[in-house]
Amino acid sequence: MEHTIGRVLLSRDQIASRIRQMGEQVTARLQQESDGTVTPEEQGIVLIPILTGALLFVADLMRHIPLKLSINPVTITSYPGTATESQGAAIKGGIPTDLTGQHVLVVDDILDTGRTLGLLRRLIQVQRPASVQLVVLLSKSKVRDEDVPVDHIGFEIEDEFVIGYGLDFDGYYRNLPDICVLA
Ligand code: IMP
Ligand code: MG
Predict the structure, then answer these.
(1) What is this structure's pTM?
(2) What gap in Å lies between CA 63 and CA 57, rounded to an integer?
């Protein structure tokens, strides 16, 4: 079947203004969680973007979090090749092992079956971090394989396969500035 770029679901301007709001919410929550010990100078915040999909999102989001933080990307794959159905989350590497006492922010492009964030969340929780926030740009409205408590959602969308702004089909289309439906 031929796949092409379908209608624009979320424009670059919609994405940009929502991410600005999300950055403010995440920052406020981090300051709350840490009883004010997290300041622009204080260390202890670790951003964990899930590559490759969250590449563009985290780059934009982190510029709206004016706190001292480090970034530790992990690679998890669930849609190998031309699959448009999740094949289950497989970790490709980079899971940090030193999160005890840290304020952790997991950033993903889209919540679909919930398996990716569910898996990563468990691997983080056992390390006893000071706090964990899960942030996703998109959330598909559907019944999930795993119920994950996500703290910040950019946009709720229908259960359609989307591309652009970091999201791919078979490795392509990540560079589209808008989020589009795969036609
Ligand atoms: P989950 O484990 O099923 O929640 O899948 C999450 C991952 O699958 C996301 O991080 C995306 O990389 C990928 N994914 C899920 N839905 C889509 C989509 O519509 N387009 C592109 N990638 C998707
Ligand atoms: Mg992903």
Answers:
(1) 0.93
(2) 10
